[in-house]
Amino acid sequence: MNKREDYLSWDEYFMGIAVLSGQRSKDPSTQVGACIINEDKKIVGAGYNGFPKGCSDEEFPWGREGGFLETKYPFVMHAEQNAILNSIKNLKNCTIYVGLFPCHECAKSIIQSGIKKIVYLSDKYNGTDSNRASKMLLDSAGVKYTKLIPRKMEICISLDENLI
Ligand SMILES: Nc1nc(=O)n([C@H]2C[C@H](O)[C@@H](COP(=O)(O)O)O2)cc1CO
Ligand SMILES: [Zn+2]
Fold first, then answer.
1. Ligand 1, from 23, 30, 123: best to mutate by most atoms within 8 Å of Cβ?
2. What is the pLDDT of residue 152?
3. Ligand 2 centre from 107 Cα, in Å?
4. Which family, according to UniProt (predicted)?
5. Helix and strand counts by DSSP (H, E) for the chain
């Protein structure tokens, strides 16, 4: 019997875990997940966007428009921040897989944590000031970033015991 050929590549596997983590997000408009791996391709952390621990989803707004304090923006933790905080301490030379290109705040945390590579799927905020500042910081610090071009657009997961 020959080996399976349609197994996940490492990139698809880690991005799949990032996207699956994003499914935990309660943000009604944008669910972002992140997965951090070390140089041995071991997963050392994962996270998704959401309000800080103890800050209730009932109490804080998920809106995008209105006064600053009426929106989610000052309150929400980004997937990358959560993944870094959820990880082991030393992230030297690690890689972060993330659904959406990191903002300037996350770029600073990524640089300071020692992460050396970012793999992302979407850069839908390309050209915004935050996105430009992020790229300036990452370029200056020598953190590489690459867009993942997946071989397949969907990875299906079934929790049906009969399919294992
Ligand atoms: N890289 C990112 N990681 C993230 O976790 N986020 C989060 C913050 C918000 O909860 C949501 C973006 O909201 P919106 O403006 O697309 O409705 O995604 C946003 C970015 C974008 O830079
Ligand atoms: Zn961010």
1. 30
2. 87
3. 7
4. Belongs to the cytidine and deoxycytidylate deaminase family.
5. 4, 5
